[in-house]
Structure formats: structure tokens, C-alpha cells
User: Fold this.
Amino acid sequence: MRIRGLGVIDDAVLELSPGFTVVTGETGAGKTMVVTGLGLLFGERAETALVRTGGPTASVEGRLQLGPDGPAADRALDAGAELEDGVLLVGRTVAAEGRSRALLGGRSVPIGVLGELAEELIAVHGQNDQDRLLRPARQRDALDRYAGDAVTGPLADYRQHYERLREVDAALAELTTRARERAQEADLLRFGLGEITAAEPQPGEDLQLGTESERLEHADALRTAATTAHAALLGDASGTDEPDAVGLVGFARRTLEQVRAHDPALATLSDRLAEVSYLVSDIATELAGYAESVDADPTRLATVHERRAVLAGLTRKYGETIDEVLDWAERSTSRLAELDGDDERIDELAAERKALIDQLAELATTISAGRQAAAEQFGAEVTTELASLAMPHARLTVAVRQTESPDGLDVGGRRLAFGPTGVDEVELQLTPHAGAPPRPIQRGASGGERSRIMLAVEVVFAGADPVPTFVFDEVDAGVGGAAAVEVGKRLARLARTAQVIVVTHLPQVAAFADRHLVVEKSRDGLVTRSGVTTLDGSGRVRELSRMLAGLADSETAAAHAEELLAAAAAAKSQS
Assistant:
């Protein structure tokens, strides 16, 4: 992570490795700016006061190593970010005039996207932070993971049944709330199908009747035209000597026949005239038959008009043509069958809903029992941890409660409100001392105490909570001596399964770190700057000596520092 222009930090690079990293430094050197930088990188609210005095912007950049798949990688890809070998680049810039900008994998994204990533990647515990596990939903999820198969198995089945119940309820609501509309639709369909059935239209009938109507309406004109054309081709039946087409073609053919032997080209033309003669004769014969077939039948014409009027009534309502009317009838028959089957479908869905409710009630009972058992065990383990963290009289409990509702599940004779995770509400509560009432941890402890409580909670949850990085700011506030050593031990234990970053002022805690970073303050005239340095073995001894005695070069303090490092190393190897 690189921080520039943030508070007293001018330009610093932090190499954060797996395991336990501790950040120390003198008061005012800017240790908290490390936590602030992480907060900005993961979507926390930006304040212009964070920008270094005289500077235009403050910026934080980080490289995150993500798994090949998982919600964090999926969310980054959904936002358009690019990942290379599982590495995601994240950036945040805050301008002195108040503007803030976020970058994710080379793409500009809304600040909220960084906050969504933080849900899966990092848990920050500080005196002023909104801790992840202070949210009831997170507490319930963490307890479920802590409970293991006793809860996660039946909870997966419960969620499947719950989703199906939502689908069934939606279908029932659709069927029951639109009963009147469906009844009206069914009546309209029945009426239309009745009209079509009564008319008994045939495919293409409207086109056929249109042609017939046209012929009947112009029967006289058609007959006259056919008779005239016949006379022109074959002559008048009255025996007049007027030339006709057949006679003229025959004369032309006979003329050519006399000389065809002298030229093949002319012979070909003569043959073609023969074909024309046959064709004209055939047409004349057909015209005579057509003229005889045309009959001006007023009765049939009236019948055709009536039938076309009936079909026109159908095409006005159900389609442009009779074929479209018949298609509408086919679709409407299927739709009417669906509507008529709604009552049966409602009965089926109601029966399925009752079965789902019974199954959900049974699964909710199993889930609640698993949560109750896990809550008792978890509360006892955290209470034991608190006793070693200078809170000997504190007791943590996990309240698993249910809310009654008249529309809820019948669980053990009680009607309980239910949702996608069951019927339980989970809340971590703290009893700070004997005789005090239990209160939610966000209201029952001071900032320093809350950090230690969350450390104890995270240590117990280690392995069950999938977040890969934990940040603790002043987790050791208000403790010292043996209690501080216990804090260090627990942070080291948590670091076995996650990356742990701790800002501390206690050498007993710093001694347990795998990597030690120190924030050093320098003064150049009137300008104060801070940088971050990774310490080697001798550097750690000097820094621990400063933290112990305020003197980095004290031989006595150095001996004590070496003793602390050796004791921490021995404690980690033994555990």
C-alpha cells in the first residue's frame, strides 16, 4: 500500500505481508494514518482535513491478492475491473476542495463499490470504526459458520424451500388478485369462440367469396366480352363473311405452305403459324364455353353477399383475414383452457404452500436448536478470552431470539416471524460486570474495551469467518503487563488463519509480530513529515527499547526488548 499526502505522511510505502504485521511509532508520527489509509482504500467517508496541509490531494493505492474466484473477485469483475494473476489494483484520491475519486482495476468506480469489496476482504476494529460484527446480520452469519454443519446444512435446505415459497406465494397472488380480470377475459374468449363456431368459416373462404361476388356482379359484361372475343377469333355464328382471326391465320399459313420447300427459314415460320392457328382455335372454343357458363344469378349473389357480411363481422374483431381469425380461435382455445384450469391450479399451489410451511417450520426448529447450542459454547469461549484480556468480570452472551407474528411459522406452538435465514434474531451482548444487565456490545463497552471484545470474538470465530484481513487500531488501549502479552498471543493466533495488521503502543504486543513497521517523524524547518520503515532484527530491538523506556539506545531496555522477542517467539512456537 502506498500513501501520499495523507495527514503527516508525505509519501510512504507499506509492505504488508501474510501473518501478523504491527505498526508502531511515536505519538503524533501518523500511525493512525495507516488505518485511515486502509479505510479510504475500502470506501470509508473522506474528509478534506485528511489532505496534507498545503497539498492538493491525498491518495492511497493498494495491491490486493484475491483468490481465483469468490464474491470479491466477482464483484470487481462486475464493476469492470481487470485482474492479473488474481491481483487487483485499488486507488482512492481525495482533493483538498472535497472531491473524492475511486479506481478499481484501472477503472473509475463509485465509492460504494469499494465498500462492497470491504465486506468480503477486511474487518477494521478501532475505537471509532463501524465494526463488521456489530451488525446483526453479520453476527448471525458468523454464528452460523461457527456452528458448522449443525446449522449450515439445514439452513441451505431452508433457503431453497423459502425461495420456492416466495414463488408459490407470487403465483397465488397473481391468480387470486386477478380473479375478476381472468373471469372477464374468459367470458370474452367464450363469446368470440362462440361467434366463430357458429359461422364455421373455412380457410381462405373470404378470398374465394370475394372472387365469386365480383364475377356474379359483372356476369353480363363478362358474357358479352367472351362472346365478342369468340366472334373475333372464330367468326360470327350468323354466317357473315367478315374475316376472323382463325381464317386470316389459316390463309397466311396456306400461302407459306406453297413455297416452303424453297427456303427452310420460311418453312419454320409456316410451322409456327400452324401452332398459332391451333392455339387461337383452342382459345375460341374455351371462350364459347366460358360465355355459356356465366350466369347472372341474383339469388346466389344475395347469398354470397350475406355470407361475406358474416365473415366481415369476424375479421373486424379477430383478424384481418379469415385465416387470421382461425389462428385467433386456436390461440384463444388454449388460453381459455388455462383460465378454466386456474381453480385447479390454485388448489395445487395452496397444497404445496402448506407443505412448504410445514417443512420450513421443521427446518427452522433444527436451525434454532443448532444456533442456541453454538451460542452457549461461543459465549463461554469469548468470556474465557476476555478474562485474559484484562476484562475478568466481563461476560459475553449471544442472544438468539424470535419475534411472534400471526402470519408466521408454527414452531413449538408459537407463531414466529420468519425470513430467508429462519426465525431467529442474533445479537452479541456484553455484561461488563456482575449485576449489570446485558447490553449490545456496541453500547455496552468503551472504544478500547470494544476492540478487545472484537479481538476475542474474532479469535474464537477464526476459521469460521471468511474475511482474510483484520485491522486493529489501539486494541490494547487500557491494558498492560501480562494482559498485553495475552493480547499479543491472541493476535498471533488469529494471524495463523488471516492477515492481521495492528497499530499499537505496547511492546508486549509488538513483540509477537511477524513483520514490524515503524512510522518515523522528521522535521524539515516548519514542515513535519512521516515515513514508514520495515525493521530488521536490530531495528526491532531499538524500537521496542524506545517503546519500553523511551530510550532507543538504553542497554537495559535493549536487554528487556530481546527478552520480550524471545518470549514471544517461544510462545508462538509452543502454541
Q: What stands out?
A: Residues 342-388 form the longest helix (47 residues). Residues 193 and 333 are 8 Å apart (CA to CA). Residues 205-320 form one domain. The chain has 19 helices and 17 strands.
